[in-house]
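pasting for ref
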Amino acid sequence: MFSKLSMSMDSQYNPQAIEIATQETWESEGMFRVSEDPDREKYYCLSMFPYPSGQLHMGHVRNYTLGDVIARQQRMLGKNVLQPMGWDAFGLPAENAAIKNKVPPAKWTRENIDYMRCQLKRLGFAYDWDRELATCDPDYYRWEQWLFIRLYEKGLVYKKTAPVNWCPNDMTVLANEQVIEGCCWRCDTPVERKDIPQWFMKITDYIEPLLADLDTLEGWPEKVVTMQRNWIGRSEGVEVHFPLDGGDGVLKVFTTRPDTLMGVTYVAVAPQHPLAQKAAQTDGQIAAFIDECKTMETSEAAMEAMEKRGVNTGLKVRHPVTGEPLPLWVANFVLMAYGEGAVMAVPAHDQRDWEFAHKYALAIKVVVVPTDTPAQAHLVDESAYTDKGVLVDSGPFSDLTSGQAFSAVADKLHSMGLGGRQVNYRLRDWGVSRQRYWGAPIPMIYCKTCGTVPVADEDLPVRLPDDVSLDGAQSPLKQLDTFRSVACPKCGGDAERETDTFDTFMESSWYFARYSCPDNDEAMLDARAQYWLPVDQYVGGVEHAILHLLYARFYNKLLRDEGLVVNNEPFTKLLTQGMVLKDGAKMSKSKGNTVDPQALVDQYGADTARLFIVFAAPPDQSLEWSDSGVEGAYRFLKKLWAFAYQQREWLQVFNARAEGATDWTQVNETQASGRRQVYQIFKQADFDYSRQQFNTVVSAAMKMLTVLQRYPATDSDMDKAVVAEGMSILLRMLAPITPHLTHVLWEVLGYGAAMLNAPWPQLAAEALVVDSAELVIQVNGKVRGRIKVPTTADKSQVETLALADEGAKRHLQGLTVKKVIVVPGRLVSIVAA
C-alpha cells in the first residue's frame, strides 16, 4: 500500500486496498464529525434518507454520490459542512416482509440498517455518523408525539370520520397501492370504501403561506415549484347555490367557469352526499349504485380512465338565475373530498359532463362559442368545447366575453343571495392516521368520562410494543390489552389508547431538523437547529417533489410557530436527480435490469462507481447505465494512478522544497502555454461545480491529465513546476468525486497529510494572460499566412505587421491594397485589386 513516512506507492492501481485503508483513516480520525462554529460559514448538505429495504440500489448510489460531491467541495471552500445520514424506518413494507418471512418488523428493519450502513461506508460518503438516527427509535418519535399534543391543544389537530380502502375479509385498511383492480392485493376480496374516524392535521390553515413562500424558493427547480403550486391548487371561482326544488335549503357548487352557468342541464352529487344517501333510503336502484361505488378506486388516474356512470335520484334543484328545474344525479366521478361533493354539469363545455350526458341522453346546451367563429352548428358534436369565448343564449349575459361574464355572474348571484366569488383550494387537510402496526403510536387516550385526552408529557414516548405477531389482518395493537388498556391521565379511570399509528410522512417531515441535535433527550430541538437550519442543499428524487416536500415545508412552519426554529422554509436549494435507467427503462427487480452496487464496488472500487455516476449524465437528467462507461471510468483512474506513479519520486522531492513559491516570471512560452491550459480547464470546471454540472467536471479532469502527460520528467525546474501545480489542481478538482484515490495521491506525492483539509484551488489570473496572439492573414478571402502579434498592439501596428508578412507580400505583388480589416484576436483581411 502506501506509507506516510516512506511516501511509497504500488505501481498498479488497487482500488479495494486504498479505499479500505483510506476509510479506516477517516473513521479513526473522526474526519467527518462536525460541531457548531459561529466563526465559520456553515453549510448543511442533506440527501433524502433511505428506507432500509435490505440493500442499496443504483438510485441510492446516484443520490448519495451527488450529495457527497457537493458536501466535499463546500468543505474545501472552507465552510463548516454538516452531512448526516439516517433511516426512514417505519412503514408498510416492513410489515409485509415480517408477515412473509415470519420475523418481527423491528428485527428485519434493524438488520437491514446494519447492512446498508456498511454499504454506505464502503462507498466513502462523508457522513457524520454520530448524528445517525432511525425513525423507529422511541427517542426520535417521542418528539413528534410531543408536538402532536401541542398542536392538538392549539386546535391544529382534529379527528373526524373519513373514507378509507377497507378489506372486509382481512378486516384492515389498505393503502391505495394495495388495491389491485378494486380488490385486496393479499386475498383478492373486493375492497370497500368505508368511513372510519381518523386524525387530521390542519395543513389548510397554512395554505396561503405555503403558496406565497414558493416565490422565495429561487434555488428550487421551476418544475418542482410548479408541481407544489398545482398540488395546493388555488383557484378563483364562484360558489353557486342551487335551491332544492320543493324543500328548504340549497345545493352548493364551486365552479371556475361561471361563464357556463346558463348551460347547466343537470347537477351531480357524490355517492356519499347527504342528498344521495337520502334518496337511497327509498330507492333500491340508488342504494345498489352507491354500494357499487364503495369498491371503486379514487385516484386521479383511475377517475380519469373509468367509465362515467350514475343514476337519477328523481330529485330536482332550481337554476339560480332562470328558476328552471334541473335533474339531480348521483355520479361516480364526483368525490365528497372535493368542494361540497357536488358539480354543476355543463355537457357542452366539459368533456366529462359531455360523456355522461351522451350516455344517459341528457340535454346539451351551447352557451360559449369561439370569439372569431360564433357559429354554433356542430360545435359540440364530437366533443365538448372547453375553451373560453363569447356567451350566447345566456339571457342577461349574452354577448359578454368569458372574462366579463365571470364578474357579471358572480355579482348577479351575490345580489340574489345565491352565491358569489370564492377562492378554493385543491389541498385538503393531512390525514395522519394509519390503521397499521409498524408506525409511531398516536399519543391520544379515550376515556368514557373525560372524552379524548392527550397522553401526559411525562408518559412520552408512547412506545410501540415489539412483542407482537403479525398475521396480515388487523393491527395487533387492537388486540393487545397491555398496550390498549390504560388509565385516564385526567381522572385515573379505565381508558383505551388510540391504536392507529402515524403516517410515515410524519417522521420524514422533520428529520432534517433533528439531525442538528439528535442527542438531546430533553427537547425536540435546541439552539443548534438555529445554527444549522435551513438546509443549504437538499438532494433527492423528483418523485418526492409533491407530498414529502409539501409536508416538510408545513412541518417547518409548525416548528417555527412553536419557537423551535427561526427559518420559514426548510430547504434553500433543491437538486432533483434523474432516474438510473438500463436498456431504456428504470431499474427494477421486476424488469430484471438491476445492477448490484456491491458487486460493482467489489470489482472496480467505489471511486470508479462514483466517477461513472457523475460522468454519465448531468445530475438532473436520467442516466443510462453502460458497462463500457464503467470500464472507461476505471481506465481513466488507472491512467491517473500510472501517471502519478511515474512522477512520484521527483514530485515528492519537488513538493518538499523549502525555498518557497515558484517564480512564474521565468517560464518560457511552452511552459506558459501549458500552465495557461491547466487554468483555462480549471476555470471552466470551477464554474461547472457552481452550477452542479459535475459530468463536465470529469471531462475537464480528463483534459487536464492529457495536458500534463505532454510534459516529460526532465531536469527543468519550470517543467516540473508546471506539472506539480497542475497535478495539485487536478487532484483537488477530482477529490469530491473520487475521494479515496485523491486522498492517497495527495499524501504520496507530497502535497500534504490530508486531502480533506486541502483548500479549493484559486484561479491564478496571471496564468491566463496571453502576451501574444496568432492571427490568420487573408488576401481577398484566401488564407495566405499567419502572424504573431503582441496582445497590446493597436490596429495600425497589426496592419503593418500583416502587410510585412512574406506570404501576404507575395500575393499582393502587382495589386493595390484597398482595405485592411482587423478582427482582434482572430484575423487580418486584406482587400486588394
